[in-house]
Amino acid sequence: VTTTFVAVALGATLASQGAELGGTQPNELILGVEPSSSCNCHDNFNNPDVYRPAHSYRATMMALSARDPLFRAAFIAAREDRPELSELCLRCHAPAGWLNDRSKGDLDALIADDLEGVTCDICHRMEAADPPLVGDGQYTISSRSAKRSRRGNAPGGGHQVIRTSYVASADSCAICHSLFNPTEDGHDEDGNVLPVVYYEQRTYEEWLDSDFSKAGGETCIDCHMTTTRGEAAEGAPVYDDLKVHDFVGGNRFALDAVAILDRNVFSPSGVELRAAREWADRSLARAASLEITEPSSQRLSLQSGDTASLGVRLTNLTGHKLPSGYPEGRRVYMEVSITMDGQDKQIVSGRWDQATGDLVRDEQLRSYDTEHGRVMNGVSRREHSLILMNQIISDTRLPPRGFMPDPSRPDMIPAGRDYGSGPYRHYDDHTYELVAPDVPMATTGTVTVRAMYQATDGETVRYLLQRANGTEEGNKLEQVWEALGHAPPREMVSVSIPITVRPGAVDVPDAGTSDAGTITPTTTGGCGCNASQARGGLGAIFLLGLLAFVRRR
Ligand code: HEC
Ligand code: HEC
Ligand code: HEC
Ligand code: HEC
In the structure, what pLDDT confidence band is assigned to residue 157 with cuts at 50, 70 and 90? Predict the structure, then answer.
């Protein structure tokens, strides 16, 4: 059984042929999926020191995907704009609701079990489709209720276990971490139709087309699940390499929002919330490395009013673009500041305005993000409604190491920033101009660069509030937006060098000396992963030629 969507785009190529989505269809399962709340033998709230695999999973965004107030407000817009297509959203955000055919209407049709989001059974009853399916929540759920996992056995009185490597493969994540609109053709930044449907998210393919999917690379699970010592279930064997379900990115805003709106989802002690917040901070800290490349002496010595260059390199250490996934309002950017001893910090570039929740667009701003739009009758405009998007206007996100998109995926080529000629660089070099501040006497201080992660911004939230105006979802989003201080960006990594500034007015001999010499550059966050240089090659140049042909750049 397949679902057929009727194309709406005029003059479309792929999309106009109609699009079918496969996998298990609504009401097809005789033995329905169980909610996560019936899997509590795999959690241990009372003693968080003894790990069990589901420890704190309920506080990750996948478990909160149907409660997430940003999602709920965006769904209202999708439902209004494309009522016949909006059930697509629930395939991934409320899979149990979709499988039980409660996804055709509005969110009120979902029952409590559906609100548990991506539940244990969705992953642990998923099996490979033949031919494989990628994207749009086209999961194939086994007709048997047995749980599928790479190891384990049926504990007394528990459920059966079928051993399979599929659950532990990136192919299982691919089902939802690739998101396309089957009824819309993709368009490039110039509005040209691409030979591929429009993709809103391509985290899986970003990984696939990088060094990480090659031999010796890392899979989604290698990076997104840590291992620890613990018991697989209550009374089950203890493993040294138990998989912790700490699937997080950097989204603390939505987590904190659900903690306000649906507090009763978590245990009274809040142990899951604390764990998930720590995981998110840890995840952000290992997502990138930052270094100051200029001045090579790693120190600045200037006169007031002098300008100096500050070279900064930001390197993506994740296995996909940085940031990846959801395109709206999510970005990484650099904040550069000077703090002279005894004075307040002065932001040179990358100031976030708490009043609006937006990043201030100064001339030197360096941010990594993507903007999507809609091409209609040859006219392109910025679009915020996810279900209407069909164009990638810009994509300046940092590519992953060794990134070389397959020619069938021309929509993945960076747009609006030069990352070389493929494989695209997984780092970015940017030079800032600093002006030495006024000082009454020779003063020492610090120049600091911080890589910041912004989960959502004022522009996105204002749009969603306007679309969900007068609804309960709109009210809730407004409540948490205010309560959480407009989603302040979070620091990922930072690096500092010392600066000495002397008053500029009078002639100062010996411009080279400074008394700040004992301060050494410091780096916080980041990990020791080695970020090797992007490699070129004739094959790559040939491919690039092909790509350039497909996509006018
Ligand atoms: C193929 C699976 C899939 C489908 C279909 C899907 N989403 Fe999502 N959605 C995701 C994933 C995965 C993320 C998280 C990506 C990330 O963290 O960057 C996400 C994130 C979001 C977010 C951001 C949430 C936050 O807290 O920042 C919103 C809003 C959202 N989706 C709305 C929608 C709407 C509306 C639809 C239907 C038009 C939809 N999604 C369809 C998988 C899907
Ligand atoms: C997003 C997919 C996903 C979800 C959702 C998920 N798991 Fe898992 N789970 C995995 C992966 C991947 C592994 C590790 C590979 C394996 O064991 O097959 C795993 C492993 C396990 C294991 C075996 C641990 C080990 O180290 O052998 C248990 C038990 C388990 N999960 C229980 C649960 C429970 C209970 C839930 C719901 C609260 C859940 N899982 C939700 C993907 C998921
Ligand atoms: C049934 C669909 C589905 C499957 C399968 C799935 N995901 Fe997700 N995932 C989602 C959705 C939906 C979200 C976003 C929820 C939101 O932000 O509202 C998400 C979010 C995430 C996030 C980001 C969380 C954050 O804090 O920003 C990570 C990391 C993640 N998933 C990893 C994985 C991995 C690894 C696998 C494979 C083992 C996997 N997912 C399989 C649907 C899925
Ligand atoms: C080399 C390690 C690594 C690999 C491999 C990896 N990730 Fe990530 N991922 C990270 C880190 C670190 C972050 C946090 C930074 C961030 O949020 O962008 C992250 C963030 C995410 C996010 C949140 C996106 C965002 O920017 O907010 C999603 C969703 C995600 N990963 C899914 C996946 C999936 C699916 C795969 C496999 C196809 C995968 N990851 C492979 C390290 C990895």
Answer: low
